[in-house]
Structures are given as structure tokens and as C-alpha cells.
């Protein structure tokens, strides 16, 4: 892992994962990633501490809406508290799942490190990865105007609870960045092999090796991906409802809500797009293997005309990001989410127009 360049962001992501207890193991240059008792114990104690203080943090954070000058409706407060609670629960569940699968996660990190020693990220992949990291940083900095405006009127215990809440919620964003970086590395492997010498033996060996890595990747992170997609989509719908409610009531555009909705949508689409491109490249690799002619050396033309026990050499399978047997991360799933969101907007507009007619007869 010491050979991972800092400019690509993968090493930085791994260090941040270790700092936030998303990677509860020790990484050394020779041995690689391995679990140690004191590292696991410290991560467990941190998770138990955050879990125990989570109800108090949510209670204090919800009370901040009463301390601000902006008057919110009861529905808006209920949605805000519900989404806040969901984010904290998802973040704590992700940390617990990482602790539970720490051995499989360490093996996966070692496999990805071996891939990265032979396949470096291109400049385009590096650019997209850093844009994703900067986007998460921008999401965190969007809370600064709120702290500047209401920070002087809030007591210290509410500010402390708000800081803990931001820390716990930011764990989800860092987790998504790690998944995105791993998918970019797998995608770069397929892209570099496609630009190389397409010999059948090399294609088959690479396809078999990368298929095992992707299957392990999906097995370790499928629960996290499910919670990440579910939480992001529910937050997008909640922000859309808050946006429409504010627009109908105040006749203005809330920039904070619109920015938050845009950030969530872009991050969710980036994750789905990376998974979709990995599956497309895997399918192209499979087609390339099937298009190349392959005849075993011991198979003569006479034996080829007759029945022969020699099996045809073909790829072992195709990459599929099937999450908990419920859905596959691809463009069709993204279109399903978009169509559902559009229907949600239409329903909100219908109820909003009816309420305006009753309010102004």
C-alpha cells in the first residue's frame, strides 16, 4: 500500500477510512492490510460511544430549529428530524458493518492494492476522484453559513451536538467516496486492458482475476451500497418536498435546500454511473474473448470434426452489481429512480395547487 501515490487520492481515502474507523485494520507496506486486536477494540469503543450519544445528539440538534429566527412548519420539522435520524442510523450501521466484515475488507483492500500496483489511475480517473472528494468537502462547508448565522444564539451543548451530528453524517459521504474510488480502479483496469495487446490468454486470466475481485467487492459492500442508495434517495425526496413547500409558502427559492438536493443527486449518480461503466466494460471484455479464435494445441482438425471432450474456453462470467438480490446498479435503475422522483414532484405540485386555491378563494 505504500506504493499508492497520494496524487490519485486512493491512499488519502484509505487513511481517512482508518481515521473514521471505516477501515478497522492496520496497513503496512510489506504485509498489507491486516486486523489487529487493539485497532478493532478502539473502533468498537468509538462505535459504542457514538451509538450511545446518538439519541442525545439528535434531540439537541432537533431543538436548534426552535432557536432560529426562521419559522418552519410542523411537517417541515418532522421531515428534517426524520432525515437527520435516518442519516445517523445509516452512518452507524455502516460503521458496524465495516467492523463485522473487517477481515473480508482487509482481503479486499489487499486485492485492490495488487491491482493498483500494475494498473495506475489515469489522469481522467484521478480528476473525477478529486472532484468527488471536493464535492464532499463542499457539502460539509455548506453548513458554515448556518453556524455563522445561528451560532451566536445557540448554547454550547447544541453546537457540540451539531458538530457530532455533522461528523457522523460525513462518515456516509466518506464511505461513498471509498466505493467510488474502488470502482474507478476496477474500471481503469478494464480500460487499460482494452488499450493493450488483446491476446486471448491474457484476456481470460485478467477476466477471471477481476471477476473474483468484483464479486468480493459486491459481497463486502452490498449492505452499505443498499443503505447508501436508500438514504440518498429518501433525502432527495425529502429535500424536494421541502423545496416545493418553501416555494409555495414563501414564493422564493431556498438555495440551501436546492444545493443539498443537487449534491445528493450528483453523488448518487456518480456511484451508479461508475458501477454501470464497470459492467459495460466487463461485457465488452467478454465479447472480445468470445470473438478471438481459440483452438487447443492438442485439438487436430480431424478431432475437431468429430466429437471431442475438449471444452470451449470462454469467460467465467460477467460483472454484475446485484445488491442484496433486490436491484442492480446500472442506468436502468437510475432511470427508475428519476421516474419515481418525477412522479413525486407531480404529486407535490397537485397538493400545493389545491392548498393555494383553498387559501386564496
UniProtKB/TrEMBL annotation:
<keyword id="KW-0812">Transmembrane</keyword>
<keyword id="KW-0472">Membrane</keyword>
<feature type="transmembrane region" description="Helical">
    <location>
        <begin position="333"/>
        <end position="353"/>
    </location>
</feature>
<feature type="signal peptide">
    <location>
        <begin position="1"/>
        <end position="21"/>
    </location>
</feature>
<keyword id="KW-1133">Transmembrane helix</keyword>
<dbReference type="GO" id="GO:0007165">
    <property type="term" value="P:signal transduction"/>
</dbReference>
<feature type="transmembrane region" description="Helical">
    <location>
        <begin position="166"/>
        <end position="187"/>
    </location>
</feature>
<keyword id="KW-0732">Signal</keyword>
<dbReference type="GO" id="GO:0050909">
    <property type="term" value="P:sensory perception of taste"/>
</dbReference>
<feature type="transmembrane region" description="Helical">
    <location>
        <begin position="121"/>
        <end position="146"/>
    </location>
</feature>
<feature type="transmembrane region" description="Helical">
    <location>
        <begin position="220"/>
        <end position="244"/>
    </location>
</feature>
<feature type="transmembrane region" description="Helical">
    <location>
        <begin position="256"/>
        <end position="278"/>
    </location>
</feature>
<comment type="function">
    <text>Gustatory receptor which mediates acceptance or avoidance behavior, depending on its substrates.</text>
</comment>
<keyword id="KW-0675">Receptor</keyword>
<keyword id="KW-0807">Transducer</keyword>
<keyword id="KW-1003">Cell membrane</keyword>
<dbReference type="InterPro" id="IPR013604">
    <property type="entry name" value="7TM_chemorcpt"/>
</dbReference>
<comment type="similarity">
    <text>Belongs to the insect chemoreceptor superfamily. Gustatory receptor (GR) family.</text>
</comment>
<dbReference type="GO" id="GO:0005886">
    <property type="term" value="C:plasma membrane"/>
</dbReference>
<protein>
    <recommendedName>
        <fullName>Gustatory receptor</fullName>
    </recommendedName>
</protein>
<dbReference type="Pfam" id="PF08395">
    <property type="entry name" value="7tm_7"/>
</dbReference>
Amino acid at each position: 500500500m505504500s506504493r499508492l501515490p497520494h496524487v490519485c487520492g486512493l491512499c488519502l481515502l484509505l487513511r481517512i477510512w482508518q481515521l473514521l474507523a471505516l477501515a478497522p485494520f492496520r496497513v503496512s507496506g510489506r504485509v498489507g492490510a491486516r486486523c489487529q486486536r487493539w485497532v478493532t477494540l478502539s473502533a468498537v469503543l468509538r462505535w459504542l460511544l457514538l451509538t450511545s450519544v446518538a439519541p442525545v445528539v439528535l434531540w439537541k440538534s432537533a431543538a436548534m430549529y426552535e432557536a432560529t429566527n426562521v419559522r418552519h412548519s410542523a411537517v417541515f420539522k418532522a421531515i428534517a428530524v426524520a432525515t437527520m435520524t435516518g442519516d445517523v442510523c445509516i452512518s452507524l450501521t455502516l460503521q458496524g458493518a465495516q467492523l463485522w466484515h473487517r477481515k473480508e475488507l482487509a482481503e479486499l483492500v489487499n486485492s485492490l492494492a495488487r491491482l493498483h500496483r500494475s494498473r495506475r489511475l489515469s489522469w481522467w480517473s484521478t480528476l473525477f476522484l478529486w472532484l468527488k472528494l471536493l464535492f464532499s468537502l463542499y457539502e460539509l462547508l455548506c453548513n458554515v453559513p448556518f453556524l455563522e448565522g445561528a451560532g451566536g444564539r445557540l448554547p454550547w451543548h447544541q453546537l457540540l451536538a451539531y458538530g457530532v451530528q455533522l461528523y457522523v453524517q460525513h462518515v456516509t459521504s466518506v464511505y461513498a467516496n471509498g466505493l467510488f474510488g474502488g470502482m474507478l480502479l476496477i474500471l481503469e483496469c478494464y480500460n487499460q486492458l482494452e488499450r493493450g495487446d488483446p491476446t486471448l490468454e491474457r484476456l481470460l486470466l485478467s477476466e477471471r482475476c477481476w471477476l473474483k475481485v468484483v464479486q468480493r467487492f459486491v459481497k463486502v459492500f452490498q449492505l452499505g451500497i443498499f443503505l447508501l442508495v436508500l438514504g440518498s434517495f429518501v433525502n432527495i425526496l425529502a429535500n424536494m418536498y421541502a423545496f416545493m413547500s418553501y416555494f409555495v409558502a414563501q414564493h422564493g427559492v431556498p438555495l440551501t435546500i436546492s444545493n443539498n438536493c443537487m449534491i445528493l443527486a450528483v453523488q448518487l449518480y456518480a456511484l451508479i454511473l461508475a458501477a454501470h461503466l464497470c459492467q459495460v466494460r466487463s461485457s465488452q471484455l467478454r465479447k472480445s474473448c468470445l470473438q478471438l479464435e481459440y483452438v487447443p494445441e492438442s485439438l487436430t482438425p480431424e478431432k475437431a470434426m468429430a466429437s471431442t471432450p475438449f471444452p470451449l474456453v470462454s469467460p467465467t462470467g460477467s460483472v454484475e452489481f446485484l445488491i442484496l438480490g433486490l436491484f442492480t446498479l446500472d442506468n436502468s435503475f437510475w432511470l427508475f429512480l428519476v421516474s419515481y422522483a418525477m412522479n413525486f414532484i407531480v404529486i407535490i405540485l397537485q397538493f400545493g395547487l389545491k392548498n393555494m386555491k383553498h387559501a386564496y378563494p
